[in-house]
Amino acid sequence: MTTADTPQTQTTKTPQPGTSPAGGGARKGAARGPRALAWQRRRASVARFWAEYRGHRAGVVGLVALVLFALVALTAPWTVGSDVASVTDAPGRPLEGPSGRFPLGTDQFGRNLLGLVIWGSRVSLLVGLLAAVLSVAIGAVIGITAGHFRGWYATVMMRVTDWFLVMPTLVLAIALATVLSRSLGTVILAIGVTTWPTTARLVRAQTLAVESRPYIERAKALGGGHWHIMSRHVLPNVMPLVLAQTTLIISSAILSEATLAFLGLGDPTIVSWGGLLQDAREAGAVSSGDWWYLVPPGIAIAVVALAFTLCGRAVEAVLNPRLGVAR
Length: 327
Description:
By secondary structure, this protein is mainly α. About 70% of the residues lie in helices and about 0% in strands. The chain has helices at about 25-55, 55-75, 75-80, 115-150, 150-165, 170-180, 185-190, 195-210, 215-220, 225-260, 275-280, 285-290, 290-320. It is elongated. The model is unreliable at about 1-25 (pLDDT under 50).
């Protein structure tokens, strides 16, 4: 009997209790599934983003200011109460100066101006956020589709975008707010549909850059349709730009809301910072020297707009380090 015919015995090691066989870590990772691994990568990306964001001092200052304003707005029903805007139950005399009872004085109806500024933060922040989301959504859809389909569709969309760019945004918003009913939804719509062109052009340029990469060609060769390419490949790559653009547009949306309210085109039944400035103008606070009626809402608008701008620049610098934004 030759050596080749001799059966060879193999010894197998039985794993001891508490130990795992070789490759157990790989099998454990495979058992977790692609969704768990995707969430792990997302958490790691968020951690890296926050670590880099903290290096931008101006962005951290802006974020702290926004968190404080958000807390003030969310807790307004408990801190000042919903009856702060009531004219019939005003606690003071009209146009009282700042005092211990009224730290920011009273308005023309005798209402506590500090409470009105706190309550108005809810409307101003809500309008700014919703208008910015609407504007960025319109711009992102037009930018992605124009960059993907090209041809006559892209030409038409870009000419429409150019028309909106050359038209004064405030004039278009005033025209829409004048034609439509005076409500909060009208203000959001007027701001959102007039501020999207910049986002559309930026997103289209990024879409063209993404679709020129080799993996897009491979996805098309493997049968990927238009929706698959735009939603699975283009959109994730333009989302950082969309996020940075959103934070930058919120500040301009808040300023636009204040401008429309100051011009008397806002909802007269709600309290906002722009509406307080409009009330102060109608009450003659400028000529009579009632500075406490004008300064607090004006400072609130300026601080929130600056905070969103600082956050937007920091986000943009983290997502695109080549911009070289100062820390």
